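User: Okay, second chain of the day. Same drill as before: sequence in, structure tokens out.
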Amino acid sequence: MSQQNEQAGVAPLSAVGRPTPRIDAVDRVSGKARYTRDHSFPNMIYARILRSPHPHANIRSIDVSRAKALPGVKAILTHENCKVWWGAGSIAGGIQYSDEVKKVTKQRRYAFNNPVRFVGEPVAAVAAVNRHVAEEALSLIKVDYEVLPFVLDMNDALKPDAPKIWPEGNLALNNRNEAQPIAQKRGNVADALKTSAHVFEDRYTTAFVHNAQMEPRACVALWEGDKLTVYTPTGGVANCRHDMARDLGIPEDKVRVVVEYMGGNFGNKNQNQDADLITAMLAKEAGVPVKLEFSRKEDFVGVHGRWPTTQNYTIGTTADGQLTAIQLKGVSGMGPYRKNSGTMAGIELYKCPNTELSISPAYTNRTVSANFRGPEYPQGFFGMQSMMDEVADKLAMDPVDFAIKNMSRMSRDDVPYTSYSLEECIHRGAERFDWKGRRKTSPGADRGPIKKGAGFTYMLFRSGLGMSSAVLRLNANGEYTLFVGVTDVGAGAKTTMGLIAAEALKVPIARVNVVWGDTDRCPYSVGESGSRTTIQTGMAVIEAVKDIQKQVADKGMPTGDQVYVASASPSPRLEGKQRAAFGAHFCEVEVDTELGGVRVTKYVAVHDSGRIMNPLSAKGQIAGAVVQGIGMALHEDLVYDRKSGQPLTAGYYGARIATHLDAPDVDVIFIESDDGYGPYGAKSIGEAGIILCPAAVNNAIFNAIGKRLKDTPITRARILDALYGGSQGARA
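Assistant: Same drill. Structure tokens below.
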């Protein structure tokens, strides 16, 4: 992996921007770091969950008497004795972090539901003296199911005769409890298409992809009197505490959430989790600490992933390739509960006077869909950027030239960006990649069975906002302790906060002790989502440093037992502008036209994420995201048996997950800029890397073989089918 920084827009700093090993690296590699599963307490017992074997069924009765009588069983929960509403699992319209919205949510998801609506939904939970007794107890629970008709396909779910997953139907309700598509409109698409010189139509789809984080879900819960402590791998300790308190009906100060280390998130572990609620209730019932651990298969079927999509495009252009109209009619598969919006990004990439988007989030009897790194972006960009590559090809235009001609240079609300470097990203990437030399002007022109091709995509990404706080402590020994409400989901946030504090204080990072991941010790943070951590919490760190420096200036350094404490909770405003990160990806692939295999041979990723805090972690962010995108493009899909509704590829042994063997050498180039708002000019980076890769790979495959693939994953069978027809594809 190589990396290059272009620093024309920023001045060098003393700590920020220097390649810095993670301050907790030794703990991680030595085994000293404690993850949720590593926590143990006296008298702790172990939990297991009985999950539905049916995609849709009423529970006529559930008999736990034999399980309850088994020696060593301490607590059993079902829908009959546990009525806890999981607010974060049933959010109207996919709108999060809003108690008012959650209060009015009509289609509520409980810790245990009747009817059950997907294979893997919790039916009962047992806590026992050890794992073996808990497993045996599950086998003794007798459940009488009334099996109901089910629907797996999101397009079928919206047909009038489809089985109803909710009484209101299968079109997911919005935050006003209305069954309406997500809609955006500008200008008049219908009229624009009538007068367009060219009109292009096509359909793209993306599959359900599991987050596949290294650490499956787990939880340890214990009650001390009326106070609950939960050890859980969550991406937002403050939000988890808030949601747990609301769902359990107890004061927020009676909940403590702790996460020391976690093995990846990718949106899978935001807010509180059903595992947290179930473990907490079992611990309450049993009167002792309880540990719950998911298996890898449980994690795949019981925990959400990226929502699948169907995307129908109609594109109008002038004779010379100027966009006149963009229409997207789509369907998103949400599973049986709506944890996110289900929308699709991409239209905002293009300056077009007439645009129309209509997306129907559909309920199905599949595993739930929700947050996954860049929630609506990779699937939306796959469709939109593949479609625009198709349009450019049909107009005999270079895709880069087509993009520069049509790309948006302001936000979709016609608001200027805080800084803008998209064209620079594209030009720098095209030069580094040798776009003109590697792209085939005649797709599929290579002779022989191994064909090479090049693909291109570009992006802008609007990062999330939200309040975060920081507390800074200084003692007489000149030691700084920084308390932040973030958790390191894997990207090195702990080190980043230390670097920002060290830079502001003008001290070595070794003098800054960073404390995180504990709601009893740390201040509020909105959580690790929306690529907002560095921006929001970093600004709070800088403001807390300013407060400490003022105290020192006014009173001198603390002496003896004196301690200075400063805190800050800024809410930065962009003064009528929009912050965005920019990027361009260039991909070369080799396609074996006899076997259908695809290998990524060269990859260039150019990003403007503002000032790079730590180049070591930043390049890892981008390179890892590219591999994740390759997995989405070529391999990953949770496949179901259409007759039984059973998931067939749950877990690493059943699913094809991208590995190091699929990883190319990713050439990462950072164009650093200072938008004047983020800490030292930082913008977003966490989600940006995955957004472009699936479309870049797909466009490269088209350039190699001259056949357009329109569905993820782009399997060997689909490539052979495109090249030779159904018989070859079936044989593969």
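The longest strand covers residues 450-461.

User: Thanks, on to the next one.
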